[in-house]
Amino acid sequence: MQAISLVVPTCNRPGVLRNLLESLASIRLSQPLLILEVILVSDGSKGESHPAYLNLAREFDARYFWFSQSRGPAFARNYGVAQAKGDWVWFCDDDLVLESCSFDELLKLTPAQDLVLIEGVTEVEEATGLGDKVPSRSDFKGGFGTGNLLVRRETFTRIGGFDQNYFRRRGRLHFREDTDLGLRMSREGKTVLLPKLLAFHPAEKATDPWFVLRDARKYWFDAYFKRNNSEAKLWIGTPFSKGKLGTYQLRGFVSDGILLHVLWGPMIFFPTIWFFQYLLLAVLILRNIRVRVSDLLYAIPVIFVYPWVHSWFYWRGCFSLYFRPRNLYQF
Question: Which of 7, 293, 313, 323 is deepest in the core (most CB within 10 A)?
């Protein structure tokens, strides 16, 4: 496999981007035909980071494009593909480190004509506490994660690339655009998961006490995702069934139930039921997270506020986004 264009969206993180480019440098020297080009798309980065990105582009022989106003990672990736020359495009997040075995896997691969998408595995450093800044509580595998994904450029451009509606500028929210793309690509040809196409995602060495609440806002996009993909239930599940991505909709179902219980007031409000609803929600949120003693200081307010945040963003997103036509890129 040859002539791959590597596309990396980034925003205000030239420091972590350097780690990715360094992990790529040796293979570009030893196998110059494998990675045809590296395309960096800075989406909404502050002006003071611009010189650092320019230096990285010069040092690692990358093409660099800068947009002062953020339009989201879906747009950044679409724009990168529009500039690409390779037959295949490899999407990588800027905070990954590529493992050497990934390049060996690609060198020996001869893609069939009907193969349109190749998915890798992103190993995630284990979280140590409730508020740790991590991308996931488990490795990214099987959900078309665009942190480590290759697509056939001709097919990608023909279907219009990523749907750019999966981005909300306020809060820089984005979610489900990768699974949405993967499902649309799979309707055009075959997809494959390569376990040895590996990347590593280190945890950020910082804490965010409100990480769980910030994460709850991303469900703004779920109703839109369900409307556009008949296979949605198989991937993200229902309130009482687990999807392929390992996510449950039960957490949102309980959140809605808590709010309805309160809003309907004296007609159905029973404090005991309300307490057990919150207890169930706490179990759902914390079941896969190590909770330290220090975490308890903010775990209680996080759990108490969670239903309001989750339901507000889900239903606002439903009314704001549900009826919009797809926002595809004009290649």
Answer: 7
3-state helix, strand, coil in the chain (%, to 5): 45, 20, 35
Domains of the chain listed by start with CATH number: 4-207 (3.90.550.10), 233-321 (no CATH)
Residue 290 phi, psi dihedral angles, 5° rounding: -75, 125
Lowest mean pLDDT among 84-88, 231-235, 240-244, 295-299: 295-299
Query: What mean pLDDT is predicted for residues 46-63?
Result: 93
Distance (Å, whole) CA 176 – CA 36: 29
Give 8's strand partners: 40
Whether the predicted pLDDT of 319 surpasses 90:
yes
- Under DSSP, the state recorded for 162 is S
Please, which contacts does 56-61 make with residues 24 or more away whose CB atoms are closer than 8 Å?
A: 56/14, 56/17, 56/18, 56/21, 59/21, 60/21, 60/22, 60/24, 60/25, 61/28
Q: Please say whether the beta carbons of 130 and 211 come within 8 A.
A: yes
Confidence of residue 293 (pLDDT cuts 50, 70, 90): confident
The β-bridge relationship of strands 167-168 and 173-174 is antiparallel
CA–CA distance, 154 with 132 (Å, rounded to integer) = 39
- Distance, in Å, from the CA atom of 132 to the CA atom of 212, rounded to the nearest integer, reads 10
Q: How much is the pTM?
A: 0.92
Q: What is the mean pLDDT of the chain?
A: 89
- The predicted-structure confidence for 70-89, as pLDDT tens digits, reads as follows 999 999 999 999 999 999 99
Buried b (16+ CB within 10 A) or exposed e, 57-86: beebebbbbbeeebbbbbbbbbbbbbebeb
